[in-house]
Automatic annotation (TrEMBL):
Belongs to the HAM1 NTPase family. The keyword Nucleotide-binding applies. GO terms for molecular function: dITP diphosphatase activity; ITP diphosphatase activity; metal ion binding; nucleotide binding; ribonucleoside triphosphate phosphatase activity; XTP diphosphatase activity. This is dITP/XTP pyrophosphatase. One of its GO terms (biological process) is purine nucleoside triphosphate catabolic process.
Length: 202
């Protein structure tokens, strides 16, 4: 069964393909099928992921899967949330991981509550009008460090400290990170839903 991934991120495709291949699914990036990016006007991860999945499915006629993810900081009332990718631009910096980290550390300077969660929401549809989308959420809760630590990963990994490991995501080997990351959790939950609801795989 072929599933369109409502993303053009090659790394995300490889990560998810490894998991969903177990169900006999083949993921294809939407750009390979001539589909452009969807609008993401909403303020919640689930609404944006659903919009992306419906857009990709409507354009291709295929079942679709999409994710929306971001960082939710307790001290900021859950923000930046859906604006995570563009967080640095709010403070006059260019878009990018390093600037996002820089801006976050500046905004948290002197703040005692540094608790935060990386959140991933996956949505899968059998077709564009599917009234029962599958929704899976993964959350990795930790604390924001005062400076970047570690060489692995991307995004906020160097400042996301996980108390259970005593390390940041960027200090963990990739296989350990993937087993405990927000996206890894959401993907495993989605696999279980697909097995149950779509009767896929073993």
């Amino acid at each position: 069964m072929k599933l369109v991934l409502a993303s053009n991120n090659a790394g995300k495709l490889a990560e998810l393909q490894q998991l969903f291949g177990k169900l006999g699914l083949t993921l294809v990036r939407q750009s390979e099928l001539g589909v452009g990016e969807a609008e993401e006007p909403f303020r919640t991860f689930v609404e944006n992921a659903l919009a992306k999945a419906r857009h990709a499915s409507a354009a291709t006629g295929l079942p679709a899967i999409a994710d929306d993810a971001g960082l939710c900081v307790d001290a900021f009332g859950g923000l930046p949330g859906v604006d995570t990718a563009y967080y640095a631009t709010q403070f006059g910096y260019a878009k990018g991981d390093a600037n996002n980290v820089k801006a976050l550390l500046e905004q948290l300077r002197g703040e005692s509550n540094r608790r935060a969660a990386l959140v991933s929401t996956l949505v899968a549809l059998r077709h564009a009008e599917d009234p029962e989308p599958l929704v899976a959420v993964g959350r990795a809760v930790g604390e924001i460090t005062t400076e970047p630590v570690g060489e692995h990963g991307f995004g906020f990994d160097p400042v996301m400290f996980l108390p259970q490991f005593g390390k940041t995501f960027a200090q963990l080997p990739p296989e350990v990170k993937n087993a405990h990351s927000h996206r890894g959790q959401a993907a495993r939950a989605m696999l279980a839903l697909m097995r149950e609801r779509w009767a896929l795989g073993a």
